[in-house]
Amino acid sequence: MSQFNGFPTRMEFTPIPNLFINSLLAEITDIAELKLTLHVFRILFYKKGTLRFITYNELASDVSLISSFGETGKKTDEILHRALTMAIERGTILHLSLKRNEAVENIYLLNNEANKETVTKIRNGEIHLPELESKPIPEVITEKQPNIFVLYEENIGLLTPMIAEELRDAEKNYPESWIKDAVKEAVNAGKRNWRYISAILESWATEGRSDGTHLRDFKKTDPDKFIKGKYGHVFKR
């Protein structure tokens, strides 16, 4: 087991009910049920509107949840089904099976008074849910990241999958020291966003830095490294 490097100074939190920690947590002995329940809290936190629910397809396609099971293929589906069944039987979440376009759609809600009333009204036909959509859920970055990722999260904000991909592309196109310096400049200017950092890097790439250094000053193992990258349009041979 690799050792965790610690939490960054700046990060987002997922609210968890105290009742879960004080009462339910001690009763849950199955690790899959525990992981599922924690991820349900996370996913619902990102939902909008008064009625917040999760579809089975959302759970089955959530990378953070599925990868936490440590299995693949059919085995993963079995673990998810078992964990859902245990959470439903425990009373942590509520379950509804709805017919949508000739197919059955399973949805799950947190078990509270408001949702219990809603489930009853849905079953009685008093409430009709709108077309269900499986919306992308922000992925939790769990892998060990290079220093620039930690630097970004500590100084700029949440490291989303999209921002992580932008940083990986920047790593291929610019020296690491440039990325770190660009982050610092953005912080000093009060512009804590990736667009501003990217603009700084592109400016340095085309015009050089104030200290006189250019990209050509950095030794490259691949002469086409910067030309082939995402920002290759700003480079010239």
How are the secondary structure elements laid out?
Blueprint: H1 18-27, H2 31-45, E1 54-55, H3 56-60, H4 63-68, H5 74-90, E2 93-100, E3 103-110, H6 113-123, H7 147-155, H8 161-173, H9 176-188, H10 194-207, H11 225-228
Antiparallel strand pairs: 1-3, 2-3
Helix pairs in contact: 2-5, 7-9, 9-10
Short account of what is shown:
With 237 residues, the chain is mostly helical.
Features:
237 residues; mainly alpha; Arc Repressor Mutant, subunit A; 2 domains; 11 helices; 8% strand
Please state the CA-atom Rg, rounded to the nearest Å: 23 Å
Please count the helical segments. 11
CATH architecture classification name of the largest domain: Orthogonal Bundle
Query: In the CATH hierarchy, what is the class of the largest domain?
Result: Mainly Alpha
Q: H/E order of the elements?
A: HHEHHHEEHHHHHH
Unreliable spans are: 132-137, 141-145, 219-223
End-to-end distance:
45 Å
Topology-level CATH name of the largest domain: Arc Repressor Mutant, subunit A
What strand line-up does the widest sheet have? Answer: 1-3-2
Largest sheet, strands/sense/barrel? 3 strands, antiparallel
Number of strands: 3
Structural shape: elongated
Average predicted local confidence, pLDDT: 81
Count of all domains: 2
